[in-house]
Amino acid sequence: MFRYKKGLLFALVMLGFSACKIKPEIPQNKPLLVASNTFTNYSDSTQKDIPSIGTFFADTTLSALIDTALQNNFDLQVAIQRVEVARAGIRFSRGLGIPEVSAGVSAGGRKFGNYTIDGVGNYDTQFSTNINDKQSIPQPFIPDYLLGLQSSWEIDVWGKLKSQKKAALARFLSSEFGKNLVQTQLVAEIADAYFELLILDNELDFLEENIKLQQFSLDIVRVMKQAGEANQLGVELLKAQLLSSAAMKVEVNQQIIQNESRINFLMGRYPQPIRRPKFAWEKVIPPTLSAGIPSGLLTNRPDIRQAELELQARNADLFTAKAAFYPSFNINANLGLQSFKALLLLNPASAAYGLAGSLMAPIANRRALAADLMASRAEQKTAYIDYQKSVVNAFTEVYNYLYLIKTNADIYKLKSEEVNTLKNSIGISTDLFRSGRATYLEVITAQKNALQSQIELINVKKKQYNAVVGLYRALGGGWK
């Protein structure tokens, strides 16, 4: 009857404990932020999927550079190893809540003092008529041989171990999306640098054409000076303009080397020339991309997915920190063979076993648990803020790139008209100068303005491409 009451009391205590539930501090089934339906008044909401790398970048040379970078990039390789670290955490967490079993063999011995309970008791035992020769205790040093199994099992009453598994899984998935984020940024960086190379090639051609034109004008002025129709000032000014263009050419060559080195570094190799086709800048057409709808960012942007999973991990950590204040229920067991004589160790009579259960709860010194709970709560709130920040930042980036694409298109149209006008002014000023109806200053001004406008136009072209690539990255492209 007494045992029945004890069992009933224990069951009621465990039932009372299980009735206590740890509630999360942030609702899990509610959206954290509500985004608007569209990015801008003119954004396209028909696109659902982000194009793959091969589809979006039709240039085979660029695709080959990206493929090499995805294999050899240092940052991406580090991100992959972080995934492996998180995978190890998953493997470790799978063992939580499962009984631990270990096997062991041990040999030792001890000698008790003659004036101790054990020493006197062992001595008296030798004279007992209830023991045989096998049970005789060696004196004075008593060996101890053990061969057996030990097991320990913590029963997950509050879900603490389950929350640790959830945290490990969330961190593993978060590391996967962290790798995807590195890949997205890598693809965008290579595309930007590659397109800038194509633009710099064309800018170099512009400078060479203008250098030839300026050299021709300088030769004319020198001839006219000899004929007494011009002076040394005109020669010096035209020469200075020619030197300025030559210096710009050197600078552009340096920028080409820097961009090639940048691409090579992203590809994980030493500096070397980048073989690439040569396109006329008018034929370098940026790919087109629709923005889709803002809700698509939640599934396509790796940084948002990463922040969301990190928040889930922090929620699980907070749950674990709260559960640490509750009692833990452990069961320990052992089974094996134990003897103080080696020859008797495998004797069936040497069998030994034990079973014990414990219910332990922190009572007196809980400052460490309170500090851990405080830190977990702050980290969870930080993760919550980081998630909100990621969503707002993603929306802002797409919003800005959409407007940038539109404004660059307007600027490009105006700059094209400006370039055509200034190109015509070069021929007109040269003809007028030859006939004596224009000064060399007007020729210099026309050439300088035309060169500057061409450089500005080609830079607008570069900005157009960079904006489209930026939109591709902002929408979460480049990792699927």
TrEMBL record:
Signal peptide: none annotated. It holds the Pfam family OEP. Keywords: Lipoprotein, Membrane, Palmitate, Transmembrane, Transmembrane beta strand. It is a lipid-anchor. The keyword NAD does not apply. The keyword Transit peptide does not apply. It is found in: Cell membrane. Belongs to the outer membrane factor (OMF) (TC 1.B.17) family. This is Efflux transporter outer membrane subunit. It comes from Flectobacillus longus.
